[in-house]
Design brief:
It is a single chain. This protein is mostly helical. The protein has a two-stranded antiparallel ribbon. α1 packs antiparallel against α2 and α1 packs antiparallel against α3. The protein is elongated.
């Protein structure tokens, strides 16, 4: 079995952002589909917080973090250990806005869907750009 080629933390973060955007899209679409369902409570996804938790941190904001992307590189301290990326979905129990007990505001959900769609497209473009750079480097080294 072939090992996965480590492409660095940027590619990993972008892949996680694309995954988070996709799951957010599913949750928002479910909210929209159930807007007319009596007593339905909308859900929300908080993947951007999980994405931010993946980034290495230092105590001093002026310090640059040491980031490793290969097992033979030495990481510095426990804050630089790889953290699994997990997306959490929560149910919004805020006050109902409709007479049937639902708290889905269709206009707000459509705005969130549009914003998430733009975010997802941007992350896809950035990820594609990263893969193009890797492809160019491989082609350059074989020439």
């Amino acid at each position: 079995m072939m090992d996965v080629l480590p492409l660095g933390s940027t590619v990993t973060m972008l892949k996680d952002a694309v995954k988070g955007s996709g799951e957010t899209h599913e949750v928002i679409a479910n909210n929209i589909a159930n807007a007319e369902t009596p007593n339905f409570k909308r859900s929300d996804v908080s993947f951007k917080e999980a994405l931010a938790a993946e980034l290495p941190r230092t105590d001093d904001p002026d310090d640059l973090a040491l980031v490793t992307d290969a097992p033979n590189q030495i990481a510095e301290g426990p804050d630089f250990e790889a953290k699994p990326f997990s997306i959490t979905s929560t149910i919004d129990d805020s006050t109902q806005i409709r007479n049937d007990g639902s708290n889905v505001d269709i206009d707000q959900e459509m705005a969130k869907l549009s914003l998430n769609s733009s975010y997802g497209q941007t992350m896809h473009q950035l990820l594609s750009s990263q893969y193009s750079r890797v492809r160019e480097a491989i082609q350059e080294s074989t020439s």
